[in-house]
Amino acid sequence: MGDHHHGPAKGLSRWLFTTNHKDIGTMYLWFSFAMFIMGGAFAMVIRAELFQPGMQLVDPAFFNQMTTLHGLVMVFGAIMPSFVGLANWMIPMMIGAPDMALPRMNNWSFWILPPAFLLLASSLFMEGGAPAFGWTFYAPLSTTYAPPSVTYFIFSVHVLGLSSIMGSINIIATVMNMRAPGMTYMKMPLFVWTWLITAFLLVAVMPVLAGAVTMMLMDIHFGTSFFSAAGGGDPVLFQHIFWFFGHPEVYIIILPAFGVVSQIIPAFSRKPLFGYDSMVYATASIAFLSFIVWAHHMYTVGMPIAGELFFMYATMLIAVPTGVKVFNWITTMWRGAMTFETPMLFCIGFLVLFTIGGFTGLMLSIAPADFQYHDSYFVVAHFHYVMVAGAVFSMTAAVYYWLPKWCGRMYNETMGKTHFWISFIGFNVTFFPQHFVGLAGMPRRIPDYALQFADFNMMSSIGAFIYGASQILFLYNVIATIVAGKPVSDEKVWDGAEGLEWTVATPAPYHTFETPPTLDAKPAHA
Amino acid sequence: MTSQTSTEYETYYVPDKSKLAVCATIGLMLSIFGAASIMNDMTFGDPEAATSSWSIFWIGLFFFAATLFNWFRIAIKENIEGLNSAQLKKSYVLGMFWFIFSEVMFFFAFFGALFYVRNLAGPWLASEGEGGRMNYLLWEGFEYTWPMLQTPQEAIGGVANQITANNGTYQSAETTMAFGDAAAWYKWLPLWNTIILLSSSFTVHIAHMGLLDGNKKKFNLWLGLTVLLGIIFVFVQAYEYYEAYAHFGLTLNSGIYGSTFFMLTGFHGFHVLMGMTMLLIQWLRSVRGGHFTADDHFGFEASSWYWHFVDVVWVFLFLFVYIL
Amino acid sequence: MCFEAKRLAKLALGPVLMLLSMVSAGVMAAGEKVNEVNMAPGVTAVGQNIFDLHMTIFWICVIIGLLVFGVMFYSIIYHRKSRGVTPATFHESTKVEIAWTVVPFLILIGMAVPATSTLLEIYDVEDAEMDILITGYQWKWKYEYLSDDGENVSFFSNLRTPQSEIYNSEDKGQHYLLEVDEPLVIPVDTKVRFLVTANDVIHAWWVPELAVKRDAIPGFINETWTLAEEEGIYRGQCAELCGKDHGFMPVVVNVVSQGEYDEWLSGKKAEAAEIKELMAQTFTMDELMERGKAVYDRNCLACHGANGEGGVGTAIAASAIATGDLAGHLDVGINGVAGTAMQAFGGQINDVEMAAVITYQRNAFGNNMGDMVQPIDVFNHKKG
Ligand code: HEA
Ligand code: HEA
Ligand code: CUA
Ligand SMILES: [Cu+2]
């Protein structure tokens, strides 16, 4: 307890036992990057097998394991923890708090993640192989017809859920309770706002996912019949429960990304964020709507027409608040004085590509049309536009933006820009053609395909290798910066940046705001 | 705008580094690894074969429980040492509130499943309503009732007549748990359990009032009574499970009726056990350790919120599982 | 600095142009018959409606996109620091916020109207002239033509592409992975109702050109329909992950004239009668082995391997069951092994086929039992 003015402890115990939000944030960030590489490696296997028609590298069963683990690892291992890490680092600094509200629990939320993923990954070596039923694990493929490793998968999902719930409770408590005096809700930086709402979504839906996997567990081992018609259950029940979690989940992935972009665009436009209030309301509306649209993933299961219509209308509505956000960002850029450092480039990339992904989302939401799109590569293209170019791009922007603050050293700008351009081109070459093959009738989750899809698949694979390779550049740049980057000492690393995190020393000291900062009348986001 | 000097400000206690999290992780992971292995031995392996799954499970669980015990012990000690500022206490309050909210959502999943099978899937299986017009081709003769005393599988004469693959056999329950004989209402256990659990919410409230008045005696008495009621509830529930298995033919295998019945009441029962343990610990703290004052008793208050939550869940259970 | 920024702007244009050219390539190719880049309008009225809906929304999105990105790129080019601009400070306007909430909302309503009517059409399963029960199996489709007299015609439809093409030891044929041994045959200009279900896991029956995709859910029957207006062969695939060979369970529908259809149907009925006759027959070992190999290659090979070496299923070569008690072997073949991928084939292949394949398994791959199974044995075994 007591003396907080010492620095971090030395050695491994610093990381194992730490209660410091910055240490924990750092661990989350590195962990998520490791998972990104792992999930990316799985994606490379997928793309390599799909390079040409015919079976070349892996057998179909293993291919399905790759698809499943790729989705699971990317969503639960790479994206979510990366934003939690960012929240850990930034939220206390943005609201003027000494640390997270419940620091020991914070450490626990992190440390149960690596073993949970170890358990999941180890299923690759188990008898019958790893889970091969897709990241959406529809019953009964994931119950009666699943390999034995499904039990470990279920428990690992329980642990991931526990981690997310604890992490979110911590964020909610921090934001609600630890704001510096004068930091009213409507003065909080948008990143904090989006995370507050995200945390609420997490606490609401992770337990539902836990319920779903628990029912699976009971069906597999204890003879219940939740998902078996013979006993009076229904396989589609699983999908309803899963997507009640799953749809909010995709906004859990994107809302913090919105927050990041709302911090960075004003900084490099040197102009306050346009429409702060409407941004907050739009985020809240998206979160609200996300609870009542889940069945748009299930248009083809044979729902009654009334349900079909309800979910279609509700889903379409999401375009309105999301549009508000896009328009606000662009108006923020309008008549600013922009410069285009790497974080800004990634944000612009985000803006363009996410919007395209949103448009395809809107197309998918049209139920009759979705009868043709559903479970085709068009869907794969849609969600990689929103998740890779949405979440991953903005996460990358966030790292470039705050890295100098974190370690007191500047990254190599040329390398950063190169990273952006290779990523941008690689990404589009990978995923744009997937729209075409999807529309032309290529189903997703297949290891082999008919000949008319060959050209675009080859293109897509080449793009994927380019995009993947560009991440090496990123990794190198980050490490080189930490080890030997040009030191920066300005508190304000970027001249247009606003917010409390830019008022502390650079690099950010181990403990910040042990006494709360003084806020002036100027709103924090201005 | 607001300017506050550091002297006015109570420092927020940030604990120093701590081994708790890592220990808890080790315990948790061992116990779930053990549990998963036990289940796999049961279902995919040879249940007779000797494995170390049970040992791993128990060691992990013990380690986990011990760590949590220690964790709470340390948190309580910190509070007694006066490290917790009012602001920190509020963090605990928020933490507990949102934890309970997440529990609500967990039950929501199971209630949702119940509503779905009762109102949609069940009728469809019997070819009623919009979604299942043609389903008689698969389950000819199945009629939907709730509680479902005959599964679709049984309606067509068992597994052998099934058009869909055999994914397990489901025996029907012989009797429902619903309110049956009006003359023998006093033999209907769920009613007694409802009375017991509802009154325990009152007793815990009276205990709280006592504490607020600084009347520790009253507090100890009524809190003790609450724990007692909780114990009785659990026993009655266990007896009811015994009845269900032994005499009603209602088991986990009894189709969707057994599945929802046991999962909902089972998870509720598990939460009663947790709440009871929490209250028991608070009682011990008060009786043995002399903890809690009229204005500082969050440990108790959190446990009592939890207890009320468990109670509310029961009311819904009573309504949707037993009565309707 | 200024120079660099300009170069960057030019660089940014490259990818944008690339995207646009890809989009326009997609749109221009839309009219052709075999489509590589866009949705097929198909050969049904519903399909045409969906296609129109798809293109309408696509163009609306393109227009909105051009406007939004146009404003953005204008801003990027003209409002850059290197041009020496001073940033404005405005940061809110309730009026514009309301405008860009209401306008998209109205656009959405415009989309919802045709979407709703198309959806209602898709859901209108009444007045069908014939019913076909489609059942998804791991990994094949079963088609059953429901008729009032109870004499249903039914058959399985398996992937026909040989392993040698899939594993690249032979050149791939034109309809690689999209060809089956027995296609579904339906008459043209007839409203056909499909009752879709599954035996094991969820599958989805999808034929893009008939504009039908419906999930096949074990234990439930989904209804959908089509009315093909043009004769031809239409190909699709299973569209719901259903395990290992999800990528290898195509759908082929042969739309023919009413006359051809009737002819085909009576052929099918005759075939069924013939099998009935065969059931009573006694076969020689050679006949059984020959038929057995064909059945094995079609139904068992995927799991048990070309040489009985096993795979998803256990090895048949030297297997305890295949070289053990005959009744036990028959039992596995007919009733499957609960909880494993080994399905109950009793309802999937007829007694002649079953007799043949069991005989084959007992006398091939180095198994040398020498015993034979006749159709009547299978029949008796089924009766218990
Ligand atoms: C980050 C994650 C993310 C995000 C943000 C979204 C955003 C959206 N998604 Fe997406 N989606 C996924 C991740 C995401 N999705 C994933 C992972 C899947 C597949 C899961 C699986 O099956 O494995 C999926 C699948 C999916 C489906 C199911 C497809 C199928 O399986 O058949 C649908 C259908 O409605 C859908 C719709 C939408 C819509 C309407 C939005 C909207 O939020 C988009 C809103 C944005 C815009 C519309 C653009 C900006 C707006 C304007 C510029 C305003 C003006 C515009 C108009 C008026 C048109 N998504
Ligand atoms: C946020 C989540 C996320 C992210 C970031 C990604 C990233 C990528 N995804 Fe994936 N994807 C999903 C979420 C995500 N995906 C989901 C949910 C599914 C559905 C799963 C299912 O159907 O169940 C899916 C499915 C999916 C499919 C369809 C599979 C199928 O249907 O069978 C494909 C196919 O191309 C694909 C490709 C890729 C590629 C090429 C990347 C690339 O962006 C990855 C790039 C990253 C790296 C490559 C790693 C880092 C770099 C290095 C380690 C350097 C070394 C590398 C090289 C030298 C090449 N993904
Ligand atoms: Cu059958 Cu996929
Ligand atoms: Cu969704």
UniProtKB/TrEMBL annotation, chain A:
Entry-linked InterPro entries: Cyt_c_oxase-like_su1_dom, Cyt_c_oxase-like_su1_sf, Cyt_C_Oxase_1, Cyt_c_Oxase_su1_BS, Cyt_c_oxase_su1_dom, Cyt_c_oxidase_su1_bac
GO biological process, one term: electron transport coupled proton transport
UniProt-recorded Gene Ontology molecular function terms: cytochrome-c oxidase activity; heme binding; metal ion binding
Pfam families, per database record: COX1
Phosphoprotein as UniProt keyword: no
Entry's family note: Belongs to the heme-copper respiratory oxidase family.
Alphabetized UniProt keyword annotations: Cell membrane, Copper, Electron transport, Heme, Iron, Membrane, Metal-binding, Respiratory chain, Translocase, Transmembrane, Transmembrane helix, Transport
EC number: 7.1.1.9
Record gene name: coxA
Name the record gives this protein: Cytochrome c oxidase subunit 1
Gene Ontology, cellular component aspect: plasma membrane; respiratory chain complex IV
Automatic annotation (TrEMBL), chain B:
Name of a matching Pfam family: COX3
Transmembrane segments: 20-39, 51-72, 92-117, 191-212, 219-239, 259-284, 305-323
Domain Heme-copper oxidase subunit III family profile: 8-324
Alphabetical keyword list: Membrane, Translocase, Transmembrane, Transmembrane helix
Subcellular location: Membrane
Any single biological process term in GO: aerobic electron transport chain
Molecular function per GO: cytochrome-c oxidase activity
Top EC group: translocase
Membrane topology qualifier: Multi-pass membrane protein
Keyword match Membrane: yes
Gene Ontology CC: one annotated term: membrane
Keyword GTP-binding: no
UniProt-listed Enzyme Commission number(s): 7.1.1.9
InterPro entries from the UniProt entry: Cyt_c/ubiquinol_Oxase_su3, Cyt_c_oxase_su3_dom, Cyt_c_oxidase-like_su3, Cyt_c_oxidase_su3-like_sf, Cyt_c_oxidase_su3_a-hlx
Protein family: Belongs to the cytochrome c oxidase subunit 3 family.
Stated name of the protein: cytochrome-c oxidase
Automatic annotation (TrEMBL), chain C:
Pfam families: COX2, COX2_TM, Cytochrome_CBB3
Membrane topology, as annotated: Multi-pass membrane protein
Superkingdom, taxonomy of origin: Bacteria
Cellular component, GO, one term: plasma membrane
Cross-referenced InterPro entries: CcO_II, CcO_II-like_C, Copper_CuA, Cupredoxin, Cyt_c-like_dom, Cyt_c-like_dom_sf, Cyt_c_oxidase_su2, Cyt_c_oxidase_su2_TM_dom
Domain Cytochrome oxidase subunit II transmembrane region profile stretches: 28-126
GO biological process, one term: ATP synthesis coupled electron transport
Domain called Cytochrome oxidase subunit II copper A binding: residue spans: 127-267
Bilayer-crossing regions: 53-77, 98-120
Stretches of the chain forming a coiled coil according to its record: none
Protein EC: 7.1.1.9
SUPFAM superfamilies: Cupredoxins, Cytochrome c, Cytochrome c oxidase subunit II-like, transmembrane region
Keyword annotations from UniProtKB, A to Z: Copper, Electron transport, Heme, Iron, Membrane, Metal-binding, Respiratory chain, Signal, Translocase, Transmembrane, Transmembrane helix, Transport
Co-factor binding comment: Binds a copper A center.
Biological function: Subunits I and II form the functional core of the enzyme complex. Electrons originating in cytochrome c are transferred via heme a and Cu(A) to the binuclear center formed by heme a3 and Cu(B).
Protein name: Cytochrome c oxidase subunit 2
Source species of the chain: Parahalioglobus pacificus
